[in-house]
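Troubleshooting: if your tokenizer reports a length mismatch, compare your output against this known-good record of 146 residues.
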Amino acid sequence: RMRASWRSRSQPATPVGMSPTRLYELAQADYAGGQWALAINGFETYLRTFPKTDRADDAQFFIGEAYQLDGKFKESVAAYDKVITDFPSGDRVPDAYYKRGLAYSRLGQNDKARESFEAVIRDFPNAEASRLAKQLLDRLSRGARE
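Known-good structure output:
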């Protein structure tokens, strides 16, 4: 019953009495089940209802992931941008730069992809995302030379 309230297609009401953990888990379950629109809706509701929790940056990041997996790369870029700007000290920022680079690459915007990859390498040199970004930068550079 509670679950239906935030799944409506119109602007969902704040789920009364639902804990941050429960709301996040419902959105995560939709994400895990490949229900991209429902997951995005759930994570957006989470962010509106609990914008200051430890998982807020994760919710924003998974909005980007869901858009990316749904092939909506422009929307995923915007969602990853929000991770970077709204949660600058969050632990999802390196991954957001990397994934934003991937989305730009899929959109054929290789200059912007390169900028995103270079940002994660520069600002988070020890992150796993930085190592992955280096590999893709090498590939982009080789592609430009061939």
